[in-house]
Design brief:
Keywords: Methyltransferase, rRNA processing, Transferase. It holds the Pfam family MRM3-like_sub_bind. Helix content is 45%, strand content 13%. The chain is built from 17 helices and 14 strands. Strands 10-9-8-13-11-14-12 form a seven-stranded parallel sheet, with helices on both faces.
C-alpha cells in the first residue's frame, strides 16, 4: 500500500514537471519571439515572383505615371495649369545655357575672369609704377575712363585692360581694344592697386607711345611756342606745367634728363590728358633739345628776380673784372654736371665751386614778362625750384639772343611756384604771338609751323 502510494506520487510529480517544463519552454519561446519582434523592421514590401522565382521590378512607365500623379496633385493645389511648370523649367534652362555661352563676350570681344589668387594685376601695376621697368619694358599705366579714352583716341596701343564691371568696359571705345587682353577682376583688387582716392574700376597698360606717331587734336590752335622743362623734379609741378602748355597751345614740350618721368602716375593725374594733346619728348640732352627746335628760334629763360636791382648788381660785377659766378646772378645753378643731373643741395653763394671749375656765366639781358619778347618762333625754359636753371639753358639763351624774363612780385615773397610762373609766361607768349599773327597775316604762322615741324 505504501509502495503504491509512493508510485502514484512519483507519477504525479513527473506529470507536473513535464507540464512546468512545457510552460516554461513556451514562455521562453514566446519571450524570445517577443524580443526578436521588437528588433525587426516595421515592414518590408516584397514584390511578386514569377514562375521561375525571379522578382518582377516595377516598370518605368508605372513609376513615371506615379510621379506625374504627384505633380498633378501639387499643381492642382497651387492653382497652376498642368504644363506650366514644365514650360517654366524649360525656358529657365535655355536662359541659363545662353548666359553660360555669352558670359565671357561683350560686343564681339572676349574677356577673361580673374580667378582667386590671380596676381597679374598686382604684378603689372608694380612694373608700370617703376620708372626703370617702364623704360626697359616700354609700358605705361593709365587709370580712369577719361585718360584711357584720350590715349586710345590719340592712337596709343593698349596691351591689357583690367575692369571691375562690364558697364565700365562699355564706357571705353571697344573697337579700339581689339588685340588687347581684357581681364575682369574684383573691385576690391582694383582698390588695392589704385592710386586714386575713389577708383573708377578700370586700369589699362599701354605700350610706351612715340610722340611723333600719336594723333593730336586741335593742332590748328597751336602757336610756335615750345616749353623746355629744366630739372623739374616735382611730379605735381611737371603735370601742371604740361597741362598749362596744352592749354596755351604750345607746339611741343621738351624735358631734360634731370626731370621726373613724364609717365609717372602723379604727373599723369596733374596733366589731365595733356600727354595726348601735344608732343612731349622726355630725357633729352641739350644737343637733342637744339635738334627739336627750329633754326630761327629764340630761347628765353624764366628768372626768379622780382625787381630791377639785378641790373645794378650785374653792372657792378662786370666792372670789378672778376670772373662771373652763379652766385652773382642768383638765378642760375653753380654746379657743372655733364649729365645734367643734380641730386645734392648746394649753396648758391659759394665761390669755391665756380673758381675751381672756372665757369663763365654768359651775359643775358633781362626783361619784364609783359614786355615784347615773343616776336618769332619762341622757346621758354623753366627751371626747377630747388636747383634753378642749368648753365646750358643760359648758354642756349645767349646763343639765340634770348632774354631773362621775370615776373614782379610784392616784397617779402620769395618767388612763384615754377608751374605758376610757367603758366603766366606761356599765356603771355601766346598772346604776343597771336597778336603778331593777326598783324602779319597767316603766312607768317604757316612758315613758323614749317620750321617747327
Amino acid at each position: 500500500m505504501a509502495a503504491s502510494y509512493a508510485k502514484n506520487v512519483i507519477c504525479a510529480l513527473s506529470l507536473n514537471r513535464n507540464a512546468l517544463l512545457t510552460r516554461s519552454n513556451s514562455f521562453i519561446v514566446e519571450s524570445k519571439r517577443y524580443v526578436r519582434g521588437l528588433r525587426r523592421t516595421p515592414f518590408k514590401v516584397l514584390l511578386p515572383e514569377n514562375e521561375t522565382g525571379e522578382v518582377l521590378k516595377q516598370s518605368e512607365p508605372a513609376v513615371q505615371s506615379m510621379k506625374r500623379q504627384k505633380e498633378l496633385k501639387v499643381t492642382s493645389s497651387t492653382g497652376e495649369h498642368p504644363g506650366e511648370s514644365d514650360l517654366f523649367r524649360a525656358s529657365g534652362s535655355l536662359k541659363s545655357a545662353h548666359v553660360a555661352a555669352t558670359k565671357d563676350h561683350i560686343d564681339g570681344l572676349r574677356f577673361e575672369r580673374a580667378l582667386p589668387g590671380d596676381k597679374r594685376l598686382g604684378k603689372v601695376v608694380s612694373v608700370a609704377r617703376s620708372r626703370t621697368f617702364r623704360e626697359h619694358q616700354g609700358k605705361i599705366l593709365l587709370e580712369g575712363r577719361r585718360l584711357i579714352c584720350d590715349g586710345l583716341n590719340a592712337g596709343a596701343r593698349p596691351q591689357m585692360v583690367f575692369f571691375s564691371t562690364v558697364d565700365r568696359l562699355r564706357e571705353l571705345p571697344l573697337d579700339k581694344l581689339r588685340g588687347a587682353t581684357l581681364v575682369k577682376v574684383k573691385f576690391e583688387d582694383i582698390k588695392i592697386w589704385s592710386d586714386l582716392v575713389a577708383p573708377q574700376g578700370v586700369i589699362a597698360i599701354f605700350s610706351r607711345p612715340d610722340p611723333s606717331r600719336l594723333k593730336f587734336v586741335n593742332t590748328s590752335h597751336s602757336v610756335p611756342l615750345s616749353l623746355i622743362c629744366d630739372n623739374i623734379r616735382d611730379p605735381g609741378n611737371l603735370g601742371t606745367m604740361l597741362r598749362c602748355a596744352a592749354a596755351a597751345g604750345c607746339h611741343n614740350v621738351l624735358l631734360t634728363k634731370g626731370c621726373v618721368d613724364a609717365w609717372e602716375p602723379k604727373v599723369l593725374r596733374g596733366a589731365m590728358g595733356a600727354h595726348f594733346r601735344l608732343p612731349i619728348y622726355p630725357s633729352l640732352t641739350w644737343d637733342d633739345i637744339e635738334n627739336h627746335l627750329p633754326k630761327s628760334v629764340t630761347v628765353h629763360v624764366a628768372d626768379n628776380s622780382c625787381d630791377r636791382s639785378r641790373e645794378t648788381e650785374d653792372v657792378q660785377v662786370n666792372a670789378s673784372h672778376k670772373p662771373s659766378k652763379a652766385g652773382d646772378y642768383g638765378w642760375v645753378s653753380t654746379k657743372n654736371n655733364p649729365n645734367n643731373m643734380r641730386y645734392q643741395e648746394y649753396d648758391l653763394d659759394s665761390d669755391s665751386d665756380c673758381e675751381d671749375v672756372g665757369l663763365s656765366i654768359p651775359r643775358v639781358d633781362s626783361k619784364l614778362y609783359h614786355e615784347s619778347w615773343a616776336q618769332s618762333p619762341t622757346a621758354l625754359v623753366v627751371g626747377g625750384e630747388t636747383h634753378g636753371l642749368s648753365l646750358e639753358a643760359v648758354q642756349l639763351a645767349k646763343k639765340t639772343s634770348g632774354q631773362r624774363l621775370f615776373i614782379p612780385i610784392v616784397p617779402d615773397v620769395d618767388s612763384l611756384n615754377s608751374a605758376m610762373a610757367a603758366s603766366i609766361l606761356l599765356f603771355e607768349g601766346r598772346k604776343q604771338l597771336l597778336k603778331l599773327i593777326q598783324t602779319s597775316g597767316r603766312k607768317w604762322k604757316s612758315n613758323a609751323e614749317q620750321q617747327f615741324s
